[in-house]
Structures are given as C-alpha cells and as structure tokens.
From TrEMBL:
GO terms for biological process: defense response; immune response. Residues 1-19 form the signal peptide. The lineage of its organism: Eukaryota, Metazoa, Chordata, Craniata, Vertebrata. It is found in: Secreted. One of its GO terms (cellular component) is extracellular space. Keywords: Chemotaxis, Cytokine, Disulfide bond, Secreted, Signal. Residues 91-110 have a biased composition (Basic and acidic residues). This is Chemokine (C-X-C motif) ligand 10. The keyword Transmembrane does not apply. Residues 84-110 are annotated as: Disordered. The keyword Endoplasmic reticulum does not apply. Residues 21-85 form the Chemokine interleukin-8-like domain. One of its GO terms (molecular function) is chemokine activity. InterPro entries: Chemokine_b/g/d, Chemokine_CXC, Chemokine_IL8-like_dom, CXC_Chemokine_domain, Interleukin_8-like_sf.
Length: 110
C-alpha cells in the first residue's frame, strides 16, 4: 500500500515539475522570420541579443498596423538595420562608456 502511494505521489510531482516549464520565458520569434519588410510600414525596431531564455539573436519589427514581425538576422536587410542602429547608438552615447558594453535590448526608432 505504501509503495502504491509513493508511486502516485512521484507521478504527481513529475507532472507538476514538467508543467512548470510553460512559465519559462522563450524566444519571441519561433522561426527564422522574414527576409524583407516594406520600410514604409516600419515604426520601431528591437534587437534582442542572445540570453539565458533565448539563445539566438532576434530582430523584432513593429509595423504601423500594430503587428510585430520577426526579421531573419541572416538577411541583408537585418544586417543593414543592425549596423545602422549600432552606429546611431554609438553616435548618441559617449564612446568611452559604450565600448565593450553591449545592451541586452537595443530599441531604436527607425
């Protein structure tokens, strides 16, 4: 009887622990994303560096329609936007303080 009780409690504990995984933050972008977006629709750009909850670089574009779209970080458009955002950021900050300190999240109006 005690063995059956122990097995049932162990199963409940395992189910509870596995169910908690849904509380963990995950990547916003579920796939690679689009390669191009019409620049007229773009209102804001967010660059999320790899972190403990998402191991890959994510580029999220906010459209004037209110939608959020993931941009493929490997695309030429994304590379150009990241370069421009970093250039704008370094121009607006003191370069001696910004050197070597990448922000986890860089927000730039585009």
């Amino acid at each position: 009887m005690q063995t059956v009780t122990f097995v049932i409690l162990a199963c409940i504990l395992v189910a509870h622990v596995e169910g908690r995984g849904s509380d963990v933050m995950k990547c916003f972008c579920q796939d690679k994303g689009v390669n191009r977006v019409n620049r007229r629709l773009l209102t804001r750009l967010e660059i999320h560096a790899p972190s403990s909850y998402c191991p890959r670089l994510e580029i999220v574009i906010f459209l004037n329609t209110g939608a959020k779209v993931c941009l493929n970080p490997e695309s030429q458009m994304a590379k150009n936007m990241v370069t421009k955002a970093r250039r704008n950021r370094s121009a607006s900050h003191d370069p001696s303080k910004a050197a070597g300190h990448e922000e986890e999240k860089l927000k730039t109006l585009y």
